[in-house]
Design brief:
Distance between the termini: 43 Å
Number of helices: 8
Shape: globular
Strand order of the largest sheet: 1-3-4-12-9
Structural class: alpha+beta
Radius of gyration: 20 Å
Largest sheet: 5 strands, mixed
Length: 314
């Protein structure tokens, strides 16, 4: 596999799931750009729709807010969060229930909110797949066989205490020791990845519009990890990466009926995470306390924001 310069478009092998993801993402990007420019929309390969986005501007400087956070800010210290709110008070209260973007005072996008993104049949397909897998624990509301819990799914899992920043070193003793996550070491590892391809493609296509720099950085990361796995004889990792359709290197499946307000300190401040949910419940609200925002968090929604900078709970 050839390495590509940082400013060159990575070459994705045609037999990779990520190749189809990138093709669909390119079409979504074209649709979005054509829409905001008032140009004719491009005929789609499949049937896909991107909602019109509304914009809200907040009088908050997200860069200064980031500088005020400690390195391991968890968002669980109420006294610290109260002090931050006093220093960076939310300008107004907002309830979001329509497709929206939120920007700060410097016109930096800090939140994308797209309800009803995953159609009911996609959600139902995901629910059926998870019910068939006894190793996956999801909310009890999804079915009698499911129990609360959380699993992490990643073809290339970075073990705690062995995180590496920058290009992967050739010497394994340098601390770069990725492995296939435990959830993908069973007999159903490949089928689990294949079952995730459709929602992974949708989320990846959304990311290409929301954060193109992160999208392409993630593509390059996948290709470098694939090269590394081949060079070091990790055949299982290379095989799973080949079928992994998400531009993200991992996915977390969680179940809980509510989540305390918190931040995610290990997330880079400039990186977006994408959240979605499935189920049959209604009237759920996500709180973004330091932004003064509540948003309707019903099944099928896609939300993307800076999880280190935005304190969030359900």
């Amino acid at each position: 596999m050839l390495r590509n310069g940082i400013n060159q478009t990575p070459v994705i092998p045609e037999d990779w799931a990520l190749h189809a993801t990138n093709a669909a993402s390119a079409w979504v990007e074209q649709q979005f750009l054509a829409h905001i420019a008032g140009q004719p929309l491009v005929d789609p390969p499949p049937e896909m729709d991107m909602p019109t986005l509304l914009s809200f501007k907040l009088d908050i400087d997200i860069i200064h807010h980031n500088e005020a956070l400690t390195k391991q800010e968890s968002g669980m210290n109420d006294a610290q969060e109260k002090a931050l709110l006093a220093r960076f008070p939310p300008p107004k209260k907002l309830l979001l229930d329509r497709p929206s973007i939120v920007i700060d005072s410097g016109y930096q996008i800090i939140l994308w909110y797209i309800p009803n993104t995953l159609s009911p049949w996609v959600q139902n397909d995901m629910r059926i797949r998870q019910l068939e897998d006894p190793g996956v624990q999801l909310p009890t509301s999804l079915g009698p066989k499911l129990t609360p819990g959380c699993i992490n799914i990643a073809p290339c899992w970075f073990q705690q205490g062995h995180e590496c920043y920058g290009p992967p070193p050739e010497n394994l003793d340098d601390g770069f020791k990725p492995v296939v996550s435990a959830s993908l070491k069973g007999n159903r590892s490949l089928s689990m990845i294949l079952d995730m391809q459709r929602p992974a493609l949708i989320a990846s296509a959304a990311l290409r519009v929301m954060h193109p720099q992160l999208y392409w950085a993630s593509i390059r990361t996948h290709l470098e990890l694939s090269r590394w796995s081949v060079d070091h004889g990790s055949d299982d990792m290379h095989h799973l990466l080949k079928h992994w359709a998400s531009v993200y290197t991992g996915a977390a499946i969680m179940c809980n009926h509510q989540t305390p307000n918190h931040r995610d300190p290990k997330c880079p401040p400039e990186a977006f995470n994408i959240l979605t949910c499935i189920g049959s419940y209604q009237h759920t609200v996500m709180q973004l306390t330091n932004l003064g925002i509540e948003l309707v968090y019903n099944p099928g929604v896609i939300i993307s924001y800076f999880r280190r900078l935005v304190r969030h709970g359900i």
